[in-house]
Design a protein that fits this description.
- The structure is a single chain.
- By secondary structure, the protein is an alpha+beta fold.
- The protein has 50 helices and 24 strands.
- The strands form six sheets. Strands 2-1-5-4-3 form a five-stranded antiparallel sheet. The chain has a five-stranded antiparallel sheet with strand order 7-6-10-9-8.
- It is elongated.
Length: 1312
């Protein structure tokens, strides 16, 4: 509806120009043809043609009076039949005729009251008039109440108890007055016209009253008008009591409204003739005879009642009336000579008496004779059912296909639509035990109706019959809407229109009872009618535009202004009527309410009502689901979704197309529009061949016609692989499944489901080719496996894609000669190698299968690749991604389209994402070995997924130059292999598991030897930590020296250590002080060190520090070659000996000085070892210790043996971390690697100033100063990035402040 809004906006802007707009645009003029006397839009015209206000009001009244008023009781049935027949019999057999009736007989007294006119007319003229006015008041009141309730209130049911009681009263009184006792009431009123016309004009009964003078004339006119109204009500009610429900339990159910209408009219004539033609006896007798004869004929030939015995009963009763009227005719036409002697009884009196007795005694045989004749005629009329039963047997044996129009016509040639209806009554058969319809009878009736549809495809009565069959027999009311709409389009009679009206009411009731959805054809019709509203809406807006353009002319013509105004008013009235008609039916549709609000706002200029419509639209909304619309529409379950994989149709991923028998698309879902690249509304009304490539598009319509005529299905109810054509003329493969939803012959409706081809096997690529080997399309994995997008392959010979084209050409020759059985068995196969655009050739096995239709076959090549799928990416020299595979996109949580033409740096976490452009430039001119830890060296790095999560991967990069036009371009082919977080960590650290004594029991196998020069498994397992970690080695040296001194002098060993003391205890604590461990209990440390010759003491101290939450990382030295047990400490023996002479002097110092000296000497010792000539190569490292077993307080060997430690070693020069700071250099976030370099946890660095972590120049107080400093020192490096938002500086050498108080040499790179 946005187009309507844009139209209105543009029209408003055009009014203010003041220019000459005398010429209406061609589009406006074409649209205004509708309101200027031209042809209306088809949908709008259909709605305008439905403007039958009087008939709709009549139908509403009829439905109100008969709804829920069926005769199911035998007593009620007996009362109605007997009472109605007695009224008719009294019209023929009464004292006003020549019958000789003894009025004193009890039988006559019982019958006398039936026509209660005879009870009142002897009471006088005034009493008769009083009763007449009472009858008039009752009749007019019932009619008025019926009209008010059904037409004004538009309700035939209500939850209001008072209105519900009123409806019940109107229904009951209307049934009594217009259906049961109407003969007596009508006779009472028309008796006012029984006068001696031409002979005084006095009334027959009251001779003192002239029929042409007041007051009798006025009373007669009132009686006549009321009688006419009552006659119309009686006729309508007789038609309304007929029902299309073939399974109705109403004992008086009649599916033939036309016969009921004829019989009722004959009854009315009988009443008029019997009451008003007393002055014309012979004419009266003739007409009285004709009416029962015609009624009997209609009863016998049409059998209007659903129950056979009810037809026989009424036929017999009408035959009794024929017999009676025939005797009355004889009484009036037989001439007997009267004797001269009048004293003797006349012969005529005897004749009258004999005729009277003949009626009383002969009517019973006449009734039985009529019933017998009706029975035999009824059986004879049912005889064609044997043809349908035989057809069912042939169909069960497989010798006849009942789905084709030709076969249905062949079963039996119906003479008329009425015969179809009569034979369809065979469905009215119930199980005597369960009182449920018999399935065989329902199937037989369905076959009859379908054959009738094939014989009379456009007859409204047959279409209505079929709709009622679907509603009442199949119990699928929603599926009947299509037939009702077709019946309404084929110019139905008013009787059929009432049947359609009742069926539509049943559909509304089924929807209100819980079936709130729309059926398929109703949804199509709803969309069609909404489009009609929008069309009328647009015409109204254009008429307004034309009017204002006319007014804005420089010179005005009054005639033109009046014409434009009239056109605008007519367009607004037409649009208003169309909207109201559609809203009556779809008042809960949110879309319709929304555009109705816009119409009121922009056309009718009524903002308050528009606001109400908008609010209602928000509450209602539209929730129809196209897939749900098809659940009840199938005529049969053969080949249906049940028991098939197609039962799991997902409308979000599967395309659904609904077409008619001519191939026109009635409805498509959003997925279909997306698959084929069309906008919403573009496909509806187009032929389905638009979505097919040649030659399928040229031949599809002939396939439909062939199926309709022969019933031979080529693709129906089968899964087929087909090739579809997009709007941009590219092709794609799809699985197609088609079923027939409803209808037969040219009225059939089909549903097609398109689903993506199965790609469950990642090592199989499928290619669809013509029979000559030209590639039509391929699945999405072709580009993943062979480096060429599927779009570039279409149109090429498949043999050109292989390494050996001759092998593939021979394969296609074999394929063209293969049979379906060989292809299904997998016998048609070929082994070859396929070319890859970026990699080496790929070995494949190719098997063949067939797709398409039986007449137009396609070849499906199932290519099984004999290697694993590659996660591949190709980037140019600037980092732009030129090609990527689906496995890589899946790893990164995105699609291939999201990777191609993107930048490689966007896939990297910071800071690599900011530094990647510099690395790419350095890599172009670099020919040396890539640094350790680089992605080019095969190290594990991290890439970012679409959600921002880091994924560890390992890259294998190869580079090559390619000729692109006149230039040589550089390409990097990157194979991506997923790694684990453990692999990422193992490449940066050495993870060890040690026991309580410090012996390595396990080492991480993924750590490369190049990290520290150690093979973790071969060199470290079984060795003590002191054999390759210098701090543990120095602690062992101090421990051994302390043990040697203690063995020479017990006093020295027992010297007090409380003051910071002298002797070996100070030596033991030097390494602990350096590592910032708690050595307050020096005596305990001395005792433990003296007792053990292993690494347990220092390891225990480190474990305790970890458990207490202290600093978790320590700077250590790691040997590239572990020492043997006997060699531990030898390389530092000289340095230790030099220190021995000065131990006495240092012991005299204070406790604080001793601690500082110990720390200083230990650091100096480590530095000396790192720089000693001939010493084993050492690597600076960072160590952390964690306790795997939590019990360090136990005693005894068992406790010691159970304790396990985890020691992790990082190589210091390979650690890199990230710090995020704000503009004032306050740390916002720090990772653990940065914390490890500075000897603390990363979280401990947060909210600290950067210049307190690094020794920065004093003038740097903000991030801008830091960037400026980097630019000042390296102006050329930042020159190219000054204009960019994200600036990256060069590497800067700074000194970091370690937690142990010393400095750390670091390099930082600033980016902002």
């Amino acid at each position: 509806m946005s187009s309507v809004g844009s139209e209105s906006q543009s029209s408003r802007s055009s009014f203010s120009t003041g220019g000459d707009s005398s010429v209406v645009s061609d589009s406006d003029g074409a649209a205004l043809i509708n309101v200027n006397g031209g042809e209306q839009d088809d949908n709008v015209q259909d709605l305008l043609d439905q403007n039958k206000g009087v008939w709709d009001a009549a139908f509403s009244c009829m439905l109100l009076l008969t709804k829920n008023r069926s005769v199911t009781s035998c007593r009620m049935l007996a009362f109605r039949v007997v009472f109605e027949y007695l009224q008719l019999f009294r019209l023929v057999f009464n004292t006003r005729f020549l019958w000789v009736i003894d009025t004193n007989l009890w039988v006559w007294k019982c019958m006398y009251w039936v026509l209660f006119r005879f009870l009142i007319w002897n009471s006088g003229y005034e009493i008769y008039l009083d009763a007449l006015w009472g009858i008039v008041a009752v009749v007019l009141l019932l009619v008025a109440l019926t009209v008010v309730i059904a037409v004004v209130l538009k309700k035939d049911d209500s939850s209001n108890p008072w209105l519900k009681r009123l409806i019940w009263f109107v229904q009951s009184a209307g049934l009594l007055a217009f259906s049961v006792a109407w003969v007596s009431l009508f006779d009472y009123m028309v008796f006012m016209f029984t006068c001696h016309w031409g002979a005084g004009n006095n009334h027959v009964k009251w001779g003192d009253h002239s029929c042409l003078t007041v007051p009798h004339l006025s009373n007669m006119i009132v009686a006549g008008v009321t009688a006419a109204i009552m006659a119309v009500a009686v006729v309508f009610l007789a038609m309304a009591e007929c029902s299309g429900n073939l399974l109705s339990n109403n004992l008086l159910a009649s599916p033939v409204a036309e016969t009921a209408l004829k019989v009722t009219l004959l009854k009315l004539v009988m009443v008029l003739v019997s009451t008003c033609l007393d002055e014309f006896k012979k004419i009266q007798a003739v007409l009285m005879f004709i009416c029962p004869v015609l009624s009997t004929y209609f009863q016998i030939t049409s059998s209007p009642y659903l129950l056979p015995w009810m037809n026989h009963l009424w036929t017999g009763l009408w035959t009794g009336l024929v017999y009676t009227t025939s005797l009355l005719l004889a009484l009036n036409f037989v001439q007997l000579e009267e004797p001269l002697d009048y004293e003797e009884p006349s012969r005529f009196m005897a004749f009258r008496l004999s005729m009277t007795y003949a009626v009383l005694w002969g009517i019973w045989p006449a009734i039985l004779l009529g019933a017998a004749v009706s029975h035999f005629v009824y059986k004879w009329r049912l005889s064609p059912l044997k043809h349908f039963k035989a057809a069912q047997q042939l169909a069960e044996q497989g010798n006849l296909q009942l789905e084709t129009v030709a076969a249905l016509k062949f079963i039996y040639r119906f003479h008329s639509p009425e015969q179809v209806e009569f034979l369809a009554r065979c469905v009215h058969a119930f199980d005597p035990v369960t009182d449920t319809p018999l399935p065989d009878a329902a199937a037989l009736g369905g076959l009859v109706v379908q054959a009738g549809m094939a014989r009379f495809p456009t007859d409204p009565s047959v279409l209505l019959l079929y709709a009622n069959y679907i509603i009442y027999v199949r119990k699928q009311p929603r599926a009947a809407r299509q037939q009702l709409q077709l019946a309404a389009k084929h110019e139905p009679s008013n009787i059929d229109r009432y049947g359609i009206f009742c069926a539509m009411d049943t559909l509304k009731k089924s929807r209100s009872d819980g079936d709130s959805g729309l059926d398929l054809m109703a949804y199509v019709d709803m969309q069609r009618q909404i489009r009609a509203c929008m069309k009328a809406h647009k015409v109204a807006l254009l008429s307004q535009r034309a009017f204002w353009r006319c007014v804005m002319r420089d010179s005005l013509c009054l005639a033109d202004v009046l014409d434009s105004l009239q056109t605008m008013q007519q367009a607004e009235q037409t649009a208003t009527y169309v909207y109201k008609r559609v809203l009556e039916r779809y008042f809960q549709n949110g879309k319709l309410l929304k555009i109705w609000g816009r119409f009121q706002e922009w056309v009718l200029h009524d903002p308050p009502r528009a606001a109400k419509a908008y609010a209602e639209a928000v509450k209602r909304g539209v929730s129809e689901n196209l897939l749900n619309l098809t659940t009840d529409d199938a005529e049969d379950k053969v080949g249906s979704m049940e028991g098939d994989d197609r039962s799991k149709i997902d409308e979000k991923t599967d395309g659904i197309i609904i077409i008619d028998a001519a191939g026109s698309m009635l409805l498509v879902n959003k997925t279909t529009n997306r698959l084929f690249g069309y906008d919403r509304g573009e496909l509806e009304g187009k032929n389905i061949s638009l979505l097919m490539p040649s030659p399928f598009s040229e031949r599809h319509n002939s396939y439909l016609k062939n199926y309709i005529n022969t019933g031979v299905a080529k693709i129906l109810n089968q899964d087929r692989q087909v090739v579809c054509l997009r709007k941009d003329h590219t092709m794609f493969p799809s699985d197609l499944w088609v079923r027939r939803l409803s209808g037969t012959g040219s009225e059939s409706v089909y549903m097609g489901v398109l689903r993506g081809v199965d790609e469950s096997d990642p090592n199989v690529v499928r290619v669809w080719t013509s029979i000559t080997g030209i590639v039509l399309c391929s699945d999405s994995r072709f580009g993943d496996w062979f480096g060429v997008p599927a779009e570039e392959v279409a149109g090429r010979p498949f043999s050109s894609l292989g390494k050996r084209p001759d092998v593939l050409e021979r394969f296609f020759v074999e394929a063209r000669e293969a049979s379906l059985e060989d292809a299904a068995a997998g016998k048609i196969r070929c082994s070859s190698a396929m070319q890859h655009k970026f990699l080496d050739t790929i070995d494949v096995d190719i098997t063949l299968s067939f797709a398409g239709s039986d007449t137009e076959q396609l070849l499906v090549l199932n290519i099984r690749c004999l290697s694993d799928a590659q996660r591949l990416m190709v980037v140019d020299g600037k980092g732009k991604i030129l090609y990527a595979t689906s496995p890589l996109a899946a790893l990164l949580g995105t699609k291939v389209q999201g990777l191609v033409n993107g930048q490689m740096q966007a896939l990297l976490p910071p800071p690599p994402s900011q530094l990647h452009a510099l690395w790419m430039k350095e890599m172009v001119g670099s020919s040396g070995r890539p640094p350790l830890g680089s992605c080019r060296a095969g190290s594990v790095v991290s890439m970012l997924t679409a959600s921002g999560a880091a994924v560890p991967v390992r890259l294998a990069i190869t580079s090559r130059d390619e000729q692109s036009g006149d230039k040589m371009t550089h390409r990097h082919i990157i194979k991506v292999t997923k790694a684990s977080k453990e692999e990422l960590q193992d490449e940066q650290r050495l993870k060890l598991t040690v026991n309580f004594k410090g012996t390595v029991t396990a080492a991480s196998s993924g750590t490369p030897k190049a990290l520290f020069g150690l093979d973790p498994a071969a060199d470290l397992v079984g060795r003590p930590l002191s054999s390759f970690i210098t701090q543990f080695e120095q602690f062992r040296v101090q421990q051994r020296q302390g043990s040697a001194a203690g063995s020479g002098a017990a006093a020295a060993a027992a010297a007090p250590q409380s003051a910071g003391g002298e002797g070996s205890g100070q030596r033991y604590s030097q390494i602990a002080l350096q590592l910032q461990l708690d050595v307050s209990n020096v005596e305990q440390l001395n005792g433990a060190a003296a007792a053990a010759d292993d690494d347990s003491v220092l390891l225990t101290l480190l474990g305790q520090a970890a458990q207490e939450g202290g600093d978790t990382t320590y700077r250590v030295g790691v040997r590239s070659v572990p020492l043997a047990e006997q060699d531990i400490g030898r390389q530092s023996a000289a340095a230790a000996g030099d220190k021995g002479a000065s131990q006495q002097d240092s012991s005299k110092a204070g406790s604080s000085g001793a601690a500082a000296a110990a720390a200083g000497s230990a650091v100096g010792l480590l530095r000396g070892m790192l720089g000693a000539k001939g010493a084993t190569k050492l690597h600076a490292g960072v160590m952390s210790v964690a306790v795997l077993e939590q019990d360090l307080s136990g005693s005894g060997d068992s406790a010691d043996n159970d304790v396990q430690f985890e020691v992790q070693l990082w190589r210091a020069d390979m650690l890199s971390g990230v710090l995020e700071v704000d503009s004032s250099l306050k740390v916002l976030r720090a990772d653990e690697a940065t914390g490890s370099m500075l000897g603390c946890r990363g979280a401990a660095l947060q909210r600290k100033l950067l210049n307190r972590l690094f020794k920065l120049p004093s003038h740097i107080a903000s991030a801008a100063d830091l960037l400026q400093e980097a630019g000042r020192k390296h102006a050329s490096a930042l020159k190219s990035s000054k204009a960019k938002d994200n600036r990256v500086g060069p590497l800067l050498d700074v000194a970091g402040l370690h937690a142990d108080g010393s400095t750390v040499a670091l390099q930082i790179q600033v980016g902002g």
